[in-house]
Design a protein that fits this description.
Layout (H helix, E strand, L loop, with lengths): L1 E7 L2 E6 L11 E9 L5 H4 L9 E2 L4 E8 L11 E4 L2 E2 L5 H4 L10 E2 L7 E4 L2 H4 E3 L9 H7 L2 H11 L7 E5 L3 H12 L4 E5 L3 H9 L4 E3 L3 H11 L5 E6 L4 H10 E9 L10 H7 L2 E4 L4 H13 L11 E4 L3 H9 L6 E4 L1
Parallel strand pairs: 11-12, 11-14, 12-13, 14-15, 15-16, 17-18
Antiparallel strand pairs: 1-2, 1-4, 3-5, 3-9, 3-18, 5-6, 6-10, 7-8
The structure holds zinc ion (ZN).
The site of zinc ion (ZN) has 9 residues, from α2.
């Protein structure tokens, strides 16, 4: 089959690869309904992450089960499933505690920007739907696999509650999903930090009440001004740079919490300033599996429309164009039709 392989910086090819097959009895093979390009795919694409060899790209997926290994019990061929980018057994102590992204058997999904993909730990990772969903829900179900699950985790980790004030740092797809999630969790005020008009518009549609376009000290000053000098109860950090993390910490009120889901690149924190900030911090790779059943239900009953975050939809064969559009920030997120 043809699939997506990254050979080096900005060299992504749609080329011949081996079809995936069952390797372990706990594996499943799925036929993708759609897949997409993640903001985190841009790190190796831009040459900012070391590579040992060609990478089979893609970790966001949903589709129909084609084949299962002999030990797989909870899904069967023909069922529509969504899975997390973190593969987990869903039975170990960390999984049971709701942190499937730290599963003792954790692996990261790869090779999903393809017509077929192998999903290890299928029983613990995949969540089936009762029936094959209608075509128009596919983008939103795909979003649940990573970008929505990650935005939701940022809000959950930041302890967004009904009536609270939340700040979302970052207007990428995850940040926008963070706005949607904070809204669903009942935040009364949601301040989105964004400098791009199209992203601002989507943030407002997803429930943002205020937009702050300034960054750094000026951005923090505007957040303080909007919150009567107090700061926000919950701050969702969805970027992962030194500047964004610092901004997130400084926007948080004493006793508030930062939920950080941007993969850190060059972030260093000072113990002194953390000590006197008196804030809580929880983050890391999102345990999407914990939230998947709830998020899929919200999508299936049409309470939320996270699929709108895909502002470019192209055939999988044109995947290189999809990477380029996101790299140049012409697209928020690219959906690849299989
Ligand atoms: Zn586990």
């Amino acid at each position: 089959m043809l699939a997506t392989v990254l050979h080096g910086p900005r060299d992504v090819r749609y080329e011949q690869v081996d079809e995936p097959s069952i390797i372990l009895p706990t594996d499943a093979i799925i036929k993708l309904s759609a897949t997409c390009v993640c903001g985190s795919d841009l790190w190796p694409y831009r040459g900012l992450q070391p590579m040992d060899g060609p990478l089979h790209m893609g970790h966001e997926y949903c589709g129909v089960v084609a084949e299962v290994g002999r030990e797989v019990k909870t899904v069967k061929p023909g069922q529509f499933v969504v899975g997390s980018f973190c593969l987990s057994d869903n039975t170990c102590p960390h999984c049971q505690y709701g942190f499937q992204s730290s599963c003792v058997q954790r692996e990261f999904m790869s090779g999903a920007q393809a017509p077929y993909a192998r999903v290890p730990l299928a029983d613990g990772t995949l969540v089936p739907t009762a029936a094959v969903p209608s075509e128009d829900l596919i983008p939103s179900l795909l979003a649940a696999s990573d970008v929505l699950g990650t935005g939701w985790y940022a809000a959950d980790a930041a302890r967004v509650k009904p009536g609270s004030t939340a700040v979302v740092v970052g207007d990428g797809a995850v940040g926008l999903m963070g706005v949607l999630s904070a809204k669903q969790m009942g935040a009364e005020r949601i301040i989105a930090m964004s400098r791009h008009s199209r992203r601002q518009a989507l943030a407002l549609e997803y429930g943002a009440t205020d937009i702050v376009s300034a960054r750094g000290e000026e951005g923090v000053a505007q957040i303080k001004a909007l919150t009567h000098g107090i700061g926000a109860d919950s701050v969702l950090e969805c970027v992962g740079t030194q500047e964004s993390m610092k901004q997130a910490i400084q926007c948080t009120r004493p006793g508030g919490v930062v939920g950080y889901v941007g993969v850190p690149h060059g972030v260093e924190l000072s113990g002194q300033s953390l000590f006197f900030s008196q804030i809580g911090m929880l983050g890391g790779p999102a345990p999407v599996r914990r939230f998947l059943p709830h998020l899929m239900e919200l999508v299936l009953n049409r309470s939320i429309n996270p699929g709108k975050v895909f502002d470019l939809q192209i055939p999988l064969a044109d995947v290189a164009d999809g990477y380029r559009a996101m790299d140049e920030r012409r697209a928020i997120k690219t959906l690849l039709r299989v």
